[in-house]
Every structure is written in structure tokens, then in C-alpha cells.
Amino acid sequence: MGNKVFSFLFSVLALTIIVMVLSPRLAQALIFKVEQDGLSKTVEPVKRAEDAVSFYDYLPASGHCEFMEEGVSKLYLYQDTESGTLSLIIHHHIDEGTPGWKRVDFDFDSVPGGVFVALSDDWEDSYHLRQELDLTEHPEGRWRFGHRTDGGVLSGFSTNQPWCFTITPTYFFPSWGSMEEWRYVKSDGSEFVLDMEKPVTICAYKGTPSHTQWGLILLILAVAGFFWFMIVRRRRAMIGAR
Asked: So where are the chain's domains?
């Protein structure tokens, strides 16, 4: 009897491991956090059924996505629900906004491998020397604009491996030709304010199994236990009938 119990427990354990490893629904999901000077908020990407560049809707000299706002710089994770591609969108100001020379400089640190510039708004700076968003330059983000938008899209962030990415504003002051506020956009469209003078770090951490995952594991154990009970009961009935 002891060997049978051991075999049963081993089979249930093996089945649970197989389900956890092979089923995408049971894989440990990443948890995304935005961290800045003691602030730590768990966020989810904005999700739409189109790629990030299409969502940004860049026409000559300006973007036109739904979150753009006059005098405000924003950033947020964005995921294409069709391909699963994870991106970071950054944009400043709004098309046909209040005129006046504006400047924003962002320095990037620890850019994850595989991340690339999918869109630079604009593709050339005022002097035609570089893209305004360029991972080979320093600072990587150097935007000069007037009554239109600037910004860009970074794509290729891992959706199954942890990473951290820091943005340091090196020129981002409302006192002269810059933005009035810096905000992060959450998946439901709500926003929270970031400090314009301090670095912000966006991280993807490995999560623990969710309640749904544990529920499926318990269901597997319950079903296995039920069948084991029925087998034992039947064998005892057969033995009693002899």
C-alpha cells in the first residue's frame, strides 16, 4: 500500500509540473512596476489590437495618439494584443499646441538587450545630425519642438524575462521652454504624476503563480484524488466479492 500511495503522489506531482511548464496560461507572468524616489506602483501595459507605431499615429512632424496632451510629457508600456510585442511609448506636447521653443533631454540607462527604436518623433533633429530618439547617441532622447509633438517608441522588451530600465531627465524644467508636467499612463487610461527632476525606473519582475494558477493546480489534485478514491473503492469491492 505504501508504494501505491507513493506512486500516486509522484504521478500527481509530475502532472502538476508538466502543466505548469507547458501551459502558457500557467506560466509565471511578469509584474511591471514604475519606481521613482520611494514611489513604487504596479502597472499593466496599455493594450490595443495594433502595433505601437500605428497607435502613435505619426504623421509628418507630429503624433496623434489618444493620450497626447498640451504641455505634458507622458510615458507608458504598450502591448500589441495581436503580436504580443511590448513597447515603451514616450511623447511630449500635442499637435497644434501652444507655440514656443521646447526642449526635453532623457538619458537612458540599462536598456534591455533586443530593444530598438521603432519610431523617432522626429527622425531628424533641427540640425539634421541625428534622430531625436537614438539609442546610439547620448543622451538617447534629445527633443526640440514647438507647437507639435516629439517623442518615440522603443520596442522589443521581453515579456517573459525580468528587466529594468531607467530614464533620467537631464533637461526637463518648466522654467524655460519645457513641459509643465510628467506623467505615467496606466492601462485604464488613468495617470499618475512623476517628479520631473528625478530618474524613473520601469521594471519587469517575475511574478508568483496567480490565484487562477493555484486554483487549476488544486483542481488537478482534486480530480486525481477522486479517481484514486474510485479505483481504491472498486478494488476493495472486488476483493470483498471474492
From this structure: 29-206
E strand or H helix that includes residue 36: strand 30-36
User: Residue 231 is placed in which grid cell?
Assistant: 479505483
**Letter string b/e over residues 177-199, b meaning 16 or more CB atoms within 10 A of that residue's CB:** ebbeebbbbbeeeebeebebeeb
pTM of the model: 0.76
| Contact call for residues 56 and 87 (beta carbons, < 8 A) | no
Q: In one letter, which amino acid is 126? A: S
Nearest to 200 by CA among 17, 39, 31, 18: 39
pLDDT greater than 60 at residue 30: yes
Distance between CA 95 and CA 102 in Å, rounded?
13
CB contact at 8 A, 113 and 67: no
Question: Average pLDDT for residues 159-184, to the nearest whole number?
Answer: 86
Taking a C-beta distance cutoff of 8 angstroms, is the pair 204, 110 a contact? Answer: no
User: Could you count the other beta carbons within 10 Å of the beta carbon of residue 54?
Assistant: 14
Q: How confident is the model at residue 130 (pLDDT cuts 50, 70, 90)?
A: confident
Cα-flanking dihedrals φ and ψ of residue 84, to 5°? 85, 0
- Enter the C-alpha cell of residue 207: 511574478
> Phi/psi at 189 (nearest 5 deg)?
90, -10
Query: In this prediction, what percent of the chain has a pLDDT beyond 70?
Result: 70
User: For residues 208 and 214, what is the distance between their CA atoms, to the nearest angstrom?
Assistant: 10
- Nearest alpha carbon to residue 90 among 20, 169, 164, 37: 169
Separation of alpha carbons 189 and 200, rounded Å = 19
